[in-house]
């Protein structure tokens, strides 16, 4: 995908993507109401880090859905523009210190438009019952 001058390659899909999706759906957490425990996590992360935005993001086949969020109004975004998708596919933390200067993310609509992301820190959510990463 090309957004202006920066090439933002989509994260490469893993060969076990269909199995990951099956596990994610079995977890029955997608599209559930907000819960205080998750909300407390993002509030704490935002306060401790000083970042205005913190999320618990789960990535399905087409979108990233936010189980909890602070500093972001929308409940989900397309997987195509998701920073979290790169964490899911690589199963490794991702740190982007300057999204405006990053070769993959500089023209990402989440950087150039609302919410105006400037940096990103994502850590994989891998439940103990599986090796699949569900989000970040």
UniProtKB/TrEMBL annotation:
InterPro entries: GAF (IPR003018), GAF-like_dom_sf (IPR029016). Pfam families: GAF. Residues 38-126 form the GAF domain. It comes from the Eukaryota. This is GAF domain-containing protein. The lineage of its organism: Eukaryota, Discoba, Euglenozoa, Euglenida, Spirocuta.
């Amino acid at each position: 995908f090309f957004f202006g001058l920066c090439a933002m390659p989509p994260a490469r899909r893993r060969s076990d993507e269909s199995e990951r999706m099956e596990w994610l759906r079995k977890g029955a957490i997608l599209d559930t109401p907000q819960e205080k425990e998750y909300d407390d996590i993002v509030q704490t992360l935002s306060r401790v880090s000083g970042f205005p935005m913190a999320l618990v993001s789960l990535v399905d086949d087409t979108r990233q859905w936010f189980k909890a969020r602070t500093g972001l109004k929308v409940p989900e975004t397309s997987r195509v523009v998701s920073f979290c998708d790169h964490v899911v596919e690589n199963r490794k933390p991702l740190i982007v210190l300057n999204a405006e200067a990053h070769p993959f993310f500089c023209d990402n609509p989440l950087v150039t438009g609302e919410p105006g992301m400037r940096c990103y820190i994502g850590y994989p959510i891998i439940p103990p019952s599986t090796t699949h990463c569900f989000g970040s």
